[in-house]
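Reading group handout, session on sequence-to-structure problems. Before we discuss, look at one worked example. The prompt was deliberately terse, the way you'd type it at a terminal:

> structure RNA polymerase, sigma-24 subunit, ECF subfamily

The input record follows.
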Amino acid sequence: MKRELRKLIDNEDSANQSNSYSDHDDEYLLYLIKERDHQALAEVVNRYGRLAYSLALRILGDQGWAEEVLQDVLVKLWQKPDMYDPKRGDLRRWLLSVTHNAAIDNLRGRHGSEQKYEVGFEKFDILPDGYEDPSEDVVRKLQAEEVRGALALIPSEQKEVIELAYYGGMTISQIAKLTGASTGTVKTRMRLGMMKLRQILTSSGASE
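And the output record:
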């Protein structure tokens, strides 16, 4: 199965292979995948594979690792399509969320829990012009475990945009498109989330 998925991911003509499926909506594609229809999976790859791969690549920085993560995610979708619950969001968002989590887990496994993330705040346009980020000096010093522990304590919507930006390398516009929120809402969630994150980390003594 993984060998077949590798061909789908690498094949630039996958769109042509799944042409007859291009008019199907995501819900019907999931139904066909449950019926073991490989072409339905090929269409999912055609729609979202490149975006999911790009997300994994930004996190891992290695093409081979990113391909491995995406293959694992697609195998999971193929083997257990019922894991996707349409009530919790559309297929694209679910697929990217699973890819993001898998890539982070992959990174931890390769570098160990003591691996430090070099978070470059200046790399992303995440805050309004002129805003002085109160958390930059804190987050740059933190180990991954400390960050994850603090992130678990802030609201899920704020956690989501922070992870997509700093671990996933996504821009404000990309996050807005993925989550369905406006760019202004994404910036607000980012700002509030970072302020709460700083409060948590400072109170725990992580910045010392």
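Points for discussion. First: Residues 2-84 form a domain with the Rna Polymerase Sigma Factor; Chain: A fold (CATH 1.10.1740). Second: The chain has two domains: 2-84, 121-203.
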